[in-house]
Request: fold
Amino acid sequence: MTRAHTPSFHQLSPQLDRHLHEVGLAPAYVERLIRDTILEDLDGGYDVTTHSTVPRDHRSEVVFTSRKPGCIAGIPVVAAVLEMMCGTMNLRYEPLVRDGDVVLRDTALLRAEAPTRDLLTSERTALNLFCHLSGIATATREWADHLSRTGAVVRDTRKTTPGLRRLEKYAVRCGGGQNHRMSLSDAALVKDNHIAAAGGVAAAFRAVREHAPDITVEIEVDTLDQLREALAAGADLVLLDNMAPDVLRQAVAMSSEHSAATGRKVVLEASGGLTLATAGAVGATGVDYVSVGGLTHSSPILDIGLDYVRTL
Reply:
């Protein structure tokens, strides 16, 4: 029989609070996410198994360990889980790698000493986030490596898990990728439905430019004719959607000629139907960016485990 129980969440240490700010993660966002996730796991009750088997004053040393090789992301998030559940007075932890590091199988990632009940109750929350973010970082690193000789940079999209966008985009950065816009208000991306509603590429571009003159405007095109129209309208950031490498090369040449004539650099981003097998060929066309929605919506986790070391 379970009983109602709300865990006593602790404040983050000033050092971790500052570190989260430094890596672009708002501490309040991270705290809220962790709190909601742990409360979801308890579902109004408490950790029956842990409270049944572990004495209240029991302390342990544990270590987070990679089960497979990959790129790590989420060390400060795991630290936040531990600090919120255990409290800094009852906790000692030491990161053994840094986010963005590429590790081998069986690499020790983070060591912690804390009350065993708190460690086990928060274990699944910590691992779910750690495995998910490291999986995204690992996939991003693969794309970055495939593109490394081409000059193109891999970017993410807004195809993220609801509520996890900032964490997932952080993981992309850890893997060597760049973020596209974080939200609909950061920048304008004029897509096919906007173009249809506005009455054409040029009309859609002008409408956004007149409404928000200071915001970055990217316009999506499906054909070289649409690209020509976008360039004539003044676009300097264009998304080339579902174009084959030979068409992308023509698009790059067209944009280069336009830049030479106007003195204004046109940035090109390839998107749609891209795979690691075609990444090199797409990057070699001369585009500046390759955007991949699969980084955040389809990357498998990196298997990470929590291993018991000893009783303290």
